[in-house]
Amino acid sequence: MNSLDELIESMISGNRRSLGKIITLMENDSSSCSYIIPKIHSKTGKAHIIGITGPPGSGKSSVVDKLISYYRNEGLKVGVVAIDPTSPFTGGAILGDRIRMKKHYTDKEVFIRSMATRGSLGGLSEATGNAVKALDAFGKDIIIIETVGAGQIEVDIVKVADTVIVISVPSMGDSVQTIKAGIMEIGDIFAVNKADIEGAEKCIMEIKMMLDLSEKKEDWVPPIVKTYGNLEDGAIELYESIKEHHNYLIKSGHHEKKRVIREKTELLNILQNMFFKNLYSVISEIEIEELARIIAKREKDPYMVIQELMPKLKNLM
Ligand SMILES: Nc1nc2c(ncn2[C@@H]2O[C@H](COP(=O)(O)OP(=O)(O)OP(=O)(O)O)[C@@H](O)[C@H]2O)c(=O)[nH]1
Ligand SMILES: [Mg+2]
């Protein structure tokens, strides 16, 4: 048994430090995934994965902190993956997570992991997905992903979730416009946080209007709930809605469907990465550049070039 096997086994048997190490390993060295994932895959699939996204400083961590408390009262084990935004407004997000979820950091059944977006762009949704897998295999019942709703990468990240919560806050002028269209579409539940601030009703109305305009994809009507991230019991309605959504997913069969879609995406990603990596083992980048030059000079077209490469490409796998 090698040391990685020992690490995996130690993680599965409940060692938190090993869990942290496994997540780091998969984050920094994607080739380790092809060794780790096969050993943990059969132990995953049990957790309810919740994605929570919204503008910087909208109170995501504060709301997550409240949700953790409700789940812990139920005796459920919770994992959190908080994506540290590169946003200049919230440079100290990791510190923010620590402060906001302070009381849970000492709870052995809560595992909070912050991930930096810096440097790992592109691979971030993959790294998040792998961290979720590790937490799932570790035995977490609830896994929450917190990410700033800023662009396509964030949309990809929360797509891993069974239930997606989109947070907005009042008094941002045209609040809803700040929610990117792509994010609006993936919301299963909309939370208006800082509902103690003036303008909460207006914010709800705006979201409702946006939802009425958007094409309904399922028979689930996304509820819009108020949350108070600064109050002890400020996210009870959200917590209830998450439960309702989970029940809906299971009963309607959408749970299974969503998971198949997710596995399909992952499978295609792995295949794509694999083909690409192997591509450079059968044809060098210099050769590709040379071919590009020929195509640019109109001596050949891309399809002709690929046809000629076929004998080499057959060795790709
Ligand atoms: N008035 C009011 N303040 C709130 C509420 N919820 C959170 N806050 C405050 O808003 C600030 C930001 O809260 P966070 O929970 O760190 O927000 P976040 O969205 O996680 O922030 P980033 O992760 O940095 O994007 C903190 O000062 C909170 O105390 C609320 O319901 N009402
Ligand atoms: Mg936060």
What do you see in this structure?
The chain has 317 residues and is an alpha/beta fold. It folds into 2 domains: 43-252, 3-Layer(aba) Sandwich (Rossmann fold); 266-313, no CATH class. It contains 14 helices and 7 strands. A 7-stranded parallel beta sheet has the order 3-2-4-1-5-6-7, sandwiched between helices. Helix 1 (3-12) packs across helix 2. The model is unreliable at 87-92 (pLDDT under 50). Bound molecules: guanosine-5'-triphosphate and magnesium ion (MG).
Layout of strands and helices, then pairs:
Elements: H1 3-12, H2 16-28, H3 33-40, E1 48-54, H4 60-73, E2 78-84, H5 93-100, H6 102-105, E3 110-116, H7 124-138, E4 142-148, H8 152-158, E5 163-168, H9 181-186, E6 189-192, H10 200-213, E7 224-226, H11 236-252, H12 254-282, H13 285-296, H14 302-313
Parallel strand pairs: 1-4, 1-5, 2-3, 2-4, 5-6, 6-7
Bound molecules: guanosine-5'-triphosphate and magnesium ion.
CATH level 1 name of the largest domain: Alpha Beta
Task: Indicate the CATH topology of the largest domain.
Answer: Rossmann fold
Ligands present: guanosine-5'-triphosphate, magnesium ion
Number of domains: 2
- CATH 2nd-level architecture of the largest domain: 3-Layer(aba) Sandwich
Figure out the total of helices.
Answer: 14
Order of helices and strands: HHHEHEHHEHEHEHEHEHHHH
GO molecular function, one term: kinase activity
Organism: Candidatus Methanofastidiosum methylothiophilum
Domain AAA+ ATPase: 46-190
InterPro entries: AAA+_ATPase, GTPase/Isobutyryl-CoA_mutase, GTPase_ArgK, P-loop_NTPase
